[in-house]
Amino acid sequence: MAFLAIIHRIRPGLVNMDDLRNASNLKRLETAFRVAESELGIARLLDPEDVDVPHPDEKSIMTYVAQFLHLYPETYASADLEETDLSVPQASDLEILSLWLDKAESILFSQQKFSKDYKTQYHEFHILKIEMKNYRDIYERLRSKANSSVHDVDLRAAWPSILQRWAKVEKALEDWQLYLDTSVCGNLGQLIKWLIDAEKRLTLPLLPQSQTSNMLQVVNKTIEEHQEFFKPLDSHKKFLQRFHLDSEFSNILPEHTEDIQNRLDRVAVQSHQRHMKLLLEHARYVLLEHLSNVEENLKKWNQKYGLEPEVQNILQEHKIFVEQNKIFEEYDRRYANMKTNIETCQQVGALDAKEMDKVEKFLCDVDGLWKKMMVELHSVGNTANQVLKHW
What we know:
Elements: H1 2-10, H2 17-20, H3 25-40, H4 48-51, H5 58-71, H6 73-78, H7 93-108, H8 118-146, H9 153-182, H10 186-201, H11 215-229, H12 233-242, H13 254-301, H14 308-324, H15 327-347, H16 353-389
InterPro entries: CH_dom, CH_dom_sf, LINC-complex_assoc, Spectrin_SYNE1
Subcellular location: Membrane
Domain Calponin-homology (CH): 1-73
């Protein structure tokens, strides 16, 4: 009953302790391992037959139980562990992750994997995907230690292999998901195909790495393409909400459709964030365009004055440029527009801390540059007037 007691403490009601009290050891162990794997993301590192023997392997049991400690530490922090008849094991993160990678590799790189039917495959994939999500915390903890100055000889020796194995398992899991996704036919299959393309698109750089002189046009085109591609998003969401009424999808597992729904929801959030970031880039290049326009004219006017008609021409051009184009008001409008876009990006979580620092630095630099340009703009008009006055 020890394994069942741990599960019950983590999530009361997940197993019926009273019903299982009189069951055989094998049945209780099978129930515990199955529920822990499917509901709690605990990798099934043991089989009932491994434990229901006079002298089970203590290290294997300790490593298995250690998963509960590592994945649900808050339970152990307040638990009276005497009730479970199992002491808190001392298995390390490295041992636990290595054992899970062994299990994942045995499933993912098995020759028989694709010979199984869709439902069996998806069930195994789904459990493995949940487990990998849970084990990512352990992986990140180990990576942080491996990259720090902490002196851990065992970890430093094992880390290159762990890093490589984790990457291979992650890639194999992605490939398996793609295989299972593309096995779905009909309208849902078309939706999944669009979803896969959408997920790929959202991982691409926001804009081309190489900057060109017509970046504003590039941004405008990118915004149009983004809006066009994600136009079907709402209709896909509505379709998925009513799909269960269609007999065409009765053979699709609920876990699969739930995963598709979650991914579609995630794409909806990320595509909106990306759209806001593109609008922010548009506001940035609109502001830069204004500064570039002012800078070009200042270069043209900041030359040695020639004849009186030339000075009069400069003064006239300056007046038309500043007054008719409302240069100062236009800068204020574009600057305010960019600040509004920044606030919107913050509200939808489109900018991380590093990106926010970069944007704030840009605004600060631009504002400093504009103040210098304002002085020069006023100076051009005043100087030309003084020259004509004393001609």
